[in-house]
Amino acid sequence: MKAIENQIKEIAARLLQSGEVNIFLAWEKGDYEYQSKPYFARSVDDVDKIVFDQYCIHNLSNSLLKFRDSSDKIGLVVKGCDSRGIVRLLQDNQIERSRLYIVGVACPGMKDPLLAMKNHSGLFKVETEPEVAAKCQTCRYPNPVIYDELLGDQQAPRPQEARYAQVDAIEQMTADERYKFFEDTLSKCIRCYACRQACVACNCRLCIFDEMRPQWVGRETSISDNMMYHLVRASHMAGRCIECGECERVCPVNIPLMLINRKLIKDVDKFFGPYDAGIKYEEGVKPPLSLYQENDPDNFI
Ligand code: SF4
Ligand code: SF4
Ligand code: SF4
Questions:
Q1: pLDDT 10s digits, 40-49
Q2: Sorting pLDDT into bands at 50, 70 and 90, what band is 299?
Q3: In the chain, at which end, N or C, are there fewer CB atoms within 10 A of the end residue's CB?
Q4: Alpha carbon distance 112, 135 (integer Å)
Q5: Does residue 19 have a pLDDT over 90?
Q6: pLDDT on residue 192
Q7: What is the C-alpha radius of gyration for the chain, rounded to an integer number of angstroms?
Q8: DSSP state of 46
Q9: Which one of 242, 244, 262 would you pick to mutate in the ligand 1 pocket, going by the greatest count of ligand atoms within 8 A of its CB?
Q10: Does 194 sit in the ligand 2 pocket, CB within 6 Å?
Q11: Which atom of ligand 2 is nearest to the CA of 194?
């Protein structure tokens, strides 16, 4: 990974020096070995701090939302999942392709910094730290799907057997069992909204959960308000979730959000597919559930 890090630094220095970009998004090291965090280099002098290692797990495409109203030209490094986030943002008209210089890195899989932190704390020892983070274990697109320059050796998609295993198990339950399962699971949610903040597809300027007049969803952590939050979040993700796993990764109380996301992914694929969100950007082409036509066969709305 050191060789890739050096290549990233060279590209960042070249782009900032020439003025082709005025910000370059990558990662920098935190205080501990397992802390690699998003980093914005604004000059050639900043480039030295850039790192690329096994803990560069944050999806950087989400950071582009901070710049959607600026005219900055932005360079950034993307792994496979990050690159799907960029397609998502382009399809949602959140940023223009012409403002981006995308450095793709074929991703060998990242380690989970939160597991490493728990181990380090000594309070929550994890017996065997998996080779790669949960979100990487079924990764279908480790190679960037959109880029201007590509680094690293092409990686094979990871085995898919476990991808829908939990969804299939829930589908076998009775309606009452399912309700109980989700009641128990979602009652733990503390409504911190970390899942929303980490999500590249959660990009509405005014989120329904922040609106006060009218207040659509109560702010208590009661089971009804929690369920409402998760139902609305899930419906807004249908056909849009790029399966980056960031929401589940950042949840402080381990809510299995990918279970809900994968149910949506499975159904959208079945009813509108074959379809994987965020794998191809074609200007003007809208993905499923993004386009309303008056002759739609469904008269729900
Ligand atoms: S989900 Fe895929 S592309 Fe993203 S960090 Fe994991 S292995 Fe890399
Ligand atoms: S990150 Fe977890 S606890 Fe926080 S709102 Fe999302 S599901 Fe709830
Ligand atoms: S819902 Fe989760 S997995 Fe899907 S795009 Fe958002 S953060 Fe990624």
A1: 999 999 999 9
A2: low
A3: C
A4: 9
A5: yes
A6: 96
A7: 20
A8: G
A9: 244
A10: yes
A11: 1
Q: How far apart are CA 16 and CA 72, in angstroms?
A: 12
d(CA 42, CA 26): 11
Separation in Å, CA 202 to CA 70, 120, 150, 207: 19, 32, 27, 8
What share of residues in the chain are helix, strand, coil (percent, to 5)?
40, 10, 50
Closest CA to 51 of 74, 66, 75, 34: 34
Write the pLDDT tens digit of every residue in 149-190.
999 999 999 988 888 999 999 999 999 999 999 999 999 999
* Test site for ligand 2: of 189, 220, 247, 260, most ligand atoms within 8 A of the Cβ: 189
Task: Look up the pTM and report it.
Answer: 0.93
Both tokens assigned to 283: 């200007």
Kindly state the average pLDDT of the residues 220-240: 93
